[in-house]
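go over this:
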Amino acid sequence: MHTQNTLKSRRLSRGFTLAESVIALGILVVLITGFLAVFGPAARTIRKTLSTDEASRLQATLEWEMSVVREGREEQRYRGDSFRKALEWISQSEEAGETVLIYKYRALPGETRRDGTLEPAERELGIAGEDFIIRPMVRRLSDPLLEEDLEVVEGRVFFVKMRQLIYEGDGLRVSEEGGRIVDPYDPGEDFSVTPESYPEAIVAFEAEYYNLPTTSFQFLTSTFDPDDFTRPIFSRNLAVSR
């Protein structure tokens, strides 16, 4: 009896043989390969969907901002004319001091500032939907309210370069010269300073979206230069109307 128990004990303690280990490893590889084949494309689709959703949000936020004139400073500057605002923003978007920035920030529900936007909420407030809400925002670098927004920014900050689309043959092409708004059928006179003289009801333009490496206001007002960024994360053709 003692001998049989000893043999059993030795058999149990000897572990797996090399052949058994190779077989087990082969089964594991087959299982992992099958898992990746099924869930790999799904994961890529999810990442692509999230990227597409974010791009659509950025586009919609910019389009909405270009169609409104905010109270106070903007209302005085553009005399309530959103088309005038849009043409100025397009023509000046590549100037370092007038860069168009898109972001989300923590805001206090019901507390408005002089331009009609919501007051920024302190980071110590912790209950989303009750203490604060997340609001998308578009401001130019010259906007005096930008700095306090960036102190409570959520997520990444993007900026946009915009250039007018003009007709060439049967299609449209991006203008080679930024900073100008011209007749898209007969480029010549610059209407960026006199938008009321622009002969068309619509301005078509290309918007290139770039991701900023930091949310620091100090970076934006010191070392930041939009010309240093040459590879947009995506671009869209848009239009604004009178």
User: Anything to note?
Assistant: The first helix runs from residue 2 to 13. The two ends are 100 Å apart (CA to CA). The first strand starts at residue 100 and ends at 112.
